[in-house]
Amino acid sequence: LKTLLQIQDLHTYFYLRKGISKVVNGLQLSVREGELLGVVGESGSGKTVTAMSVVNRVRMPGKVVKGKVIYQGQDLLKLSEEELRKYRGKEIGLIAANARGNLNPLVKVGNQIANVYLAHNKVNKKEAWEKAVEMLRMVGMNDALRRAEAYPHEMSGGMAQRVMIALALVNSPNLLIADDATNGLDVTVQSQIMDLILDIVNKQGASGILITHDLGVVAQCCSEIAIMYCGQIVEKGPVTAFFDEPKHPYSRNLLNSLPERRITQERIELKGSLSSPLSLPTGCVYQTRCPYVMDVCRKVEPSMLHVDDNYNVKCHLYQEKTENRGSANEKLA
Ligand code: SF4
Predict the structure, then answer these.
(1) 144 and which of 36, 136, 244, 269 could share a cystine (Cβ 3.0–4.6 Å)?
(2) Domain boundaries defined on the chain
(3) Cα-to-centroid distance, 304 and ligand 1 (Å)
(4) What is the 3-state secondary structure (H, E, C) of the chain?
(5) How far is the CA of 50 from the centre of ligand 1 (A)?
(6) What pLDDT, in 10s, does the model give residues 113-143?
(7) Which CATH superfamily, name and number, covers 3-91+173-332?
(8) Confidence category of residue 330, pLDDT binned at 50, 70, 90
């Protein structure tokens, strides 16, 4: 499969009064065509800022300070705002967390969708409006015509989320990024929204990044998983291999923290806290919680190692390829 998106050594910092908060800190990640990748991490691990960095929508006091986001050969971070608009909403659709906060409160939702469609297609306003109504129907809204005339504050959280999905999908993007798309919704609506996203991704043959703190969603929906910790990806591989044998000590801790390894609908809650992005330690970011910490972990940041077919881990217990894998697993047992 061809690589569609490649994020290389991404650093996004927030310049605060109390110091520099390194929210995304050397992140590496790639998504292949047709792949549905789940990015999992605790609150505060940098998931949302990563999504915003990919579409270059980080605003002051935040700033992407280093790295590349290569989409189909083009580094998106090098594009002007105008050039980037051709990608956003057309090639790349973003379903942001907090739908209501991301919709324009003063514009009817039908017009918001129609405007995104108009910006990228040679159609008139009437055709764009009809497309908006069609999209609202597609995302499962009853009485779509009446809903299109509504303002965001007249909608429930679930409905506003559906509007966000319609907005993200109206131009049939190649890559859909869903950032905690079901957060704050009740369980029934959550599963309806997830089914909807999956259905649309599958029908359109698109690639997707599902950003979540729910391992169950990833186990059910995704082909690949990436584990995020303190602004870095620490493990990435196929979902089945990950749940059979997670490799990074943090991933093992995550799975072991779930009762009887029951993953459905469980959220991440680990003992101890993440290192503050204001004062990350030298070396491995997981050293403060890791039971296997060694001297080298406090001095040298581990590289992202290719340890198996399509499988990467960022930890000193491993070595490139499969050499020494046995000994790493013994240490982790
Ligand atoms: Fe633990 Fe060291 Fe691996 Fe970090 S590099 S996860 S501290 S063993």
Answers:
(1) 136
(2) 3-91+173-332
(3) 12
(4) CCEEEEEEEEEEEEEECCEEEEEEEEEEEEEECCCEEEEECCCCCCHHHHHHHHCCCCCCCEEEEEEEEEECCEEHHHCCHHHHHCCECCCEEEECCCHHHHCCCCCCHHHHHHHHHHHHCCCCHHHHHHHHHHHHHHCCCCCHHHHHCCCHHHCCHHHHHHHHHHHHHCCCCCEEEEECCCCCCCHHHHHHHHHHHHHHHHHHCCEEEEEECEHHHHHHHCCEEEEEECCEEEEEEEHHHHHHCCCCHHHHHHHHCCHHHCCCCCECCCCCCCCCCCCCCCCCCCCCCCCCCCHHHHHCCCCCEEEECCEEECCCCCCCCCCCHHHHHHHHC
(5) 23
(6) 999 999 999 999 999 999 999 999 988 888 9
(7) P-loop containing nucleotide triphosphate hydrolases (3.40.50.300)
(8) low
